[in-house]
Design a protein that fits this description.
elongated; mainly alpha
Length: about 80
């Protein structure tokens, strides 16, 4: 997966997230299914950003950025801010 394809996926997810927030902001609130989807989007966004960071770190170290792998939610969701 290239950096460009990761950025495209991030943009797609962000657009979907925005649509969900707009629906919720229309006064109807958010259904359970929509809330679950929003949570899934947030996890996938974290995974995408993590993958970009891995790729950049590998590139900076002279390693192959394509060897970076998507890490499971259990890992990316436990990062300290």
């Amino acid at each position: 997966m290239s950096d460009q394809s990761i950025f495209e996926r991030i943009n797609d997810l962000a657009a979907e997230e925005e649509r969900l927030w707009q629906l919720a902001g229309g006064g109807a609130g958010m259904s359970g299914t929509q809330q679950e989807r929003l949570e899934a989007i947030q996890v996938e966004l974290d995974q995408c950003y993590d993958l970009l960071h891995q790729r950049e770190a590998r590139r900076s170290a002279g390693l192959d950025p394509d060897a970076a792998k998507v890490r499971p939610p259990e890992i990316v969701e436990r990062y300290q801010q």
